[in-house]
Amino acid sequence: MAPASADARIYQLQARVLAAAAHPIRLAIIDFLKDGERCVCDIARHVDANRSNVSRHLGLMLRAGLVDCRKEGLRQMYRLRAPCVVNFLACVNKVLRHELARTQAALARL
Predict the structure, then answer these.
(1) Which residues are registered as beta bridge partners of 105?
(2) pLDDT digit string (tens) for 53-65?
(3) How far apart are CA 26 and CA 17, in angstroms?
(4) All domains of the chain, ordered by start, with CATH?
(5) Position 78 confidence tier, pLDDT thresholds 50, 70, 90
(6) How far apart are the C-alpha atoms of 76 and 55, rounded to whole Å?
(7) How far apart are CA 9 and CA 70, in angstroms?
């Protein structure tokens, strides 16, 4: 049974947000911003990528609603719009730990 159209739209919007986070650089950016607002130069240095690449990732994250930005002089400052996204990453880490434990248990039986 297909979800009702209102539900389907919500799932599409949720998938858009998840897709905007689903990249190693963007996950590193989210993790870095959990401690507060940062400029693009600091973000680029932290994720070990050039500024233009980081700016493209931040633009995608901005359009999806994951981050906010403001100008401070010549610096572009970014922060998490909804810091609770870090909770989701903690949940993902829990899934990974469970999967690792399951894999290790299976290997121990070999």
Answers:
(1) none
(2) 999 999 999 999 9
(3) 12
(4) 5-82 (1.10.10.10)
(5) very high
(6) 10
(7) 30
The pLDDT mean for the chain works out to 93
Answer whether 80's CB lies under 8 Å from 91's CB: no
Q: Are strands 75-80 and 67-72 parallel, antiparallel or unpaired?
A: antiparallel
Question: What order of strands is seen across the sheet that includes strand 38-39?
Answer: 38-39, 75-80, 67-72
Task: Locate 7 and state its tokens.
Answer: 């539900």
Which phi and psi (to 5°) does residue 22 adopt?
Answer: -80, 65
Report the pLDDT value the prediction gives residue 93, as an integer from 0 to 100: 92
CA–CA distance, 56 with 46 (Å, rounded to integer): 16
Are 38 and 77 spatial neighbours (Cβ–Cβ below 8 Å)?
Answer: yes
The whole-model pTM stands at 0.85
Task: Compute the distance between CA of residue 70 and CA of residue 105 in angstroms, rounded to an integer.
Answer: 49
CA 62 to chain centroid, in Å, comes to 11
